[in-house]
């Protein structure tokens, strides 16, 4: 069975990529070794930039309905409650950032939402389809699974830190242990504990323990995180109950159910490359993070968002295959920087709880200035000016010719730029009040005029919401669009 793209791994990265390819009309198969979706809460924080991606994919309403804001932390000394404090730098929504705050949603629920969206788009996950072997040549990729052999034009490994695909194609991954102490994370149902706070026993006997109320389940759902000063975690249900009884004032019987549990040692690792021939690495298959700072899941979603539109342009719009080279050139440096953030946060304090989460973790500042697809042609810009490579901020906009949606003028016709960007297309933003709308633009190209906050020029926003070309000369648009396969 031949397809255009084989995706291995139906976690957040693989599901995001599958949704993006499905809306682009790219044929794919999504293989998952497990019999079902991941059942745990491991990655529970959705950064502001990831929420923008989920908005573009059409699921932000479901994400916000199922999740919650992060509660205030509360420190405990045994049975004595201590002061409240905030892990998150809170800020209100503003014109450029409609989703300014880290949003809590357990990983299992994020995956359910993405999976439901994939089904809506006509896709599906082939569960129980683990990869046994990978072969590739200049013409395509061949994968052996328990169900048979599959072939494709390209293969994307989104199969986690122990990626079978990465090992099969021989891409090295170098890393380090972030913390030699073992840790445990578990989804538990607990009676008798307030859901108003994320409870922290920083100096509990044997190691720190944290209990965080989880949205998306029942009123008793919590995530337990426990560090071990020595020894290995007991991941049995009784072992989890014992940790709660030893490190908190709750009795073991307060844990009415242990739904999922995992033991691990925090580590950081980065693959030497993100592409080898027709095989791409994304998510944990390419970079492994400490849980501190909530960067791993979010970086994987951004990988998929960067790669999906490029595969779509090559496979559906005749863009040169060299466009795919930009995936590694853009994402590998980003992953390296994000690994530094998560590692430093972890080492800033036990499980990183002493370091605030704010602008450095939101991923709104992640961009590709100086990258292979970033072409800034306007002179005299300051460092803080919006430039090619930057994330395109939201803004009030009108139609590119300055009229409202119904042609009635700007009064009452203004709308959000993100509403124009939403979808698989690129968008031309005419910034300023004086530049004319270029003639003979491709029909698939979205257009809008932004009069404030974007400077002046023609700014071409890529399908992943980053500015590709910024110029004062409309004649520059044609060659840039041609490189993306636009008619």
How would you describe the overall organization of this protein?
The chain is of the alpha+beta class and about 475 residues long. The protein has 3 domains: about 220 residues, FAD/NAD(P)-binding domain; about 110 residues, D-Amino Acid Oxidase, Chain A, domain 2 (2-Layer Sandwich); about 110 residues, Glutaredoxin. About 25% of the residues lie in helices and about 30% in strands. The strands form 6 sheets. Strands 1, 2, 8, 9, 10, 11, 19 and 20 form an 8-stranded mixed β-sheet that branches. α7 runs antiparallel to α8. It is globular. About 5% of the residues have low confidence.
CATH class assignment of the largest domain: Alpha Beta
The pLDDT mean sits at 91
Output the CATH topology of the largest domain: FAD/NAD(P)-binding domain
Query: What's the number of helices?
Result: 10
Topology, number of strands: 28
Q: Could you tell me the strand content as a percent range?
A: 25-35%
Q: Taking Cα atoms only, what radius of gyration do you get, to the nearest Å? A: 23 Å
How would you characterize the largest beta sheet?
A: 8 strands, mixed
Uncertain residue ranges: 350-354, 404-412
Protein topology:
Blueprint: E1 2-8, H1 12-23, E2 28-32, E3 45-46, H2 48-56, H3 60-66, E4 68-69, E5 72-77, E6 80-85, E7 103-104, H4 107-120, E8 125-127, E9 131-137, E10 140-145, E11 148-157, H5 164-169, E12 173-177, E13 183-190, E14 197-201, E15 209-213, E16 221-227, H6 237-247, E17 255-264, E18 267-271, E19 275-276, E20 279-281, E21 287-288, H7 296-317, H8 325-347, E22 375-376, E23 396-397, E24 415-416, H9 417-421, E25 427-431, E26 446-450, E27 457-461, E28 467-471, H10 477-483
Parallel strand pairs: 1-2, 1-11, 2-8, 5-14, 11-20, 22-28, 25-26
Antiparallel strand pairs: 3-7, 4-7, 5-6, 9-10, 10-11, 12-18, 13-16, 13-17, 14-15, 15-16, 18-21, 19-20, 23-24, 25-27, 27-28
